[in-house]
C-alpha cells in the first residue's frame, strides 16, 4: 500500500460524522488540512497569515475560515475558504474524513500571504519541538520551528495549528511522536472530547 492509501485508511478510522451534532450553538469555522504525497512522503500544506493583519499577523495556519449561511456544512466551508485563500479548486480535493470539532477563542478569518509545506514526519520529531502546559486547558501548547526550504525562512508553527498537525501526522503515518503530546495517539478523540466538555462546562 502506498503512502497516500495508507494515510487515507488510517485517517478514516477517526471520521466523526454527525456524532457530535449535539454541541451547543456556537459561531462556526472550518479548516482544511491539506495532505499530499511528494517523493513517496506525506506532506502537510500550510499558509502564512498576512503581516498586515491586526492580530496574529504572520502566523502559520491551515486554510479555513468562518461558516457562511450559504455553506451546506463544515466541509463546504473549508473547501470554499481553501479555494479563496490558496486557489485550491474543490473538485481537486478528496475529503478523506471529518475530524473532531474544537473550540477556540480566536475564530478569525485567515488572510494568507504565502503557502508552504512541511513533511508530515516533521511533526512527530522532537529536535525542533517544544511545549508547555496551561492550567486552564488539558494537554500542552506545542511549538515547532520549521525552516522552509523554498524561502529559506524560519517559521514558528504553534498552538492549534501545531496540535492538529501533530494529530494528523501521527494518525496518518501511524507513528508515535518522539515527545509528550498530552493525548493518546491511538485514541486522540478522547482528548478532544475532554477539551469540549471543559469548555461547555464553563458556559
From TrEMBL:
Single GO MF descriptor: coenzyme A diphosphatase activity
Annotated Nudix hydrolase domain residues: 26-180
Gene3D superfamilies recorded: Nucleoside Triphosphate Pyrophosphohydrolase (3.90.79.10)
Known cofactor(s): Mn(2+); Mg(2+)
GO biological process: coenzyme A catabolic process; nucleoside diphosphate metabolic process
InterPro entries membership: CoAse, NUDIX_hydrolase-like_dom_sf, NUDIX_hydrolase_dom, NUDIX_hydrolase_NudL_CS
UniProt keyword annotations, A-Z: Hydrolase, Magnesium, Manganese, Membrane, Metal-binding, Transmembrane, Transmembrane helix
Keyword Metal-binding part of the UniProt annotation: yes
Lineage: superkingdom: Eukaryota
Bilayer-crossing regions: 157-173
One Pfam short name: NUDIX
UniProt keyword Transmembrane helix present: yes
Family named by the database record: Belongs to the Nudix hydrolase family. PCD1 subfamily.
Protein name: Nudix hydrolase domain-containing protein
Lineage summary: Eukaryota, Metazoa, Chordata, Craniata, Vertebrata
Gene: NUDT7
Amino acid at each position: 500500500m502506498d503512502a497516500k492509501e495508507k494515510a487515507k485508511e488510517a485517517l478514516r478510522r477517526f471520521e466523526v460524522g454527525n456524532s457530535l451534532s449535539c454541541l451547543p450553538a456556537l459561531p462556526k469555522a472550518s479548516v482544511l488540512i491539506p495532505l499530499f504525497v511528494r517523493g513517496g512522503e506525506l506532506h502537510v500544506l500550510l499558509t502564512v497569515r498576512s503581516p498586515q493583519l491586526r492580530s496574529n499577523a504572520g502566523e502559520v495556519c491551515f486554510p479555513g475560515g468562518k461558516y457562511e449561511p450559504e455553506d451546506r456544512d463544515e466541509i463546504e466551508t473549508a473547501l470554499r475558504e481553501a479555494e479563496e485563500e490558496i486557489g485550491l479548486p474543490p473538485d481537486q480535493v478528496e475529503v478523506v474524513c471529518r475530524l473532531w470539532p474544537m473550540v477556540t477563542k480566536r475564530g478569525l478569518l485567515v488572510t494568507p500571504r504565502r503557502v508552504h509545506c512541511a513533511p508530515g514526519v516533521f511533526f512527530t520529531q522532537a529536535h525542533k519541538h517544544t511545549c508547555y502546559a496551561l492550567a486552564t486547558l488539558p494537554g500542552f501548547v506545542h511549538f515547532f520551528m520549521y525552516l522552509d526550504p523554498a524561502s529559506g525562512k524560519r517559521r514558528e508553527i504553534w498552538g492549534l495549528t501545531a496540535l492538529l498537525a501533530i494529530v494528523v501526522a501521527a494518525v496518518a503515518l501511524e507513528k508515535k511522536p518522539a515527545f509528550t503530546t498530552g493525548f493518546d495517539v491511538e485514541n486522540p478523540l478522547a482528548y478532544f472530547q475532554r477539551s469540549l466538555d471543559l469548555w461547555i462546562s464553563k458556559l
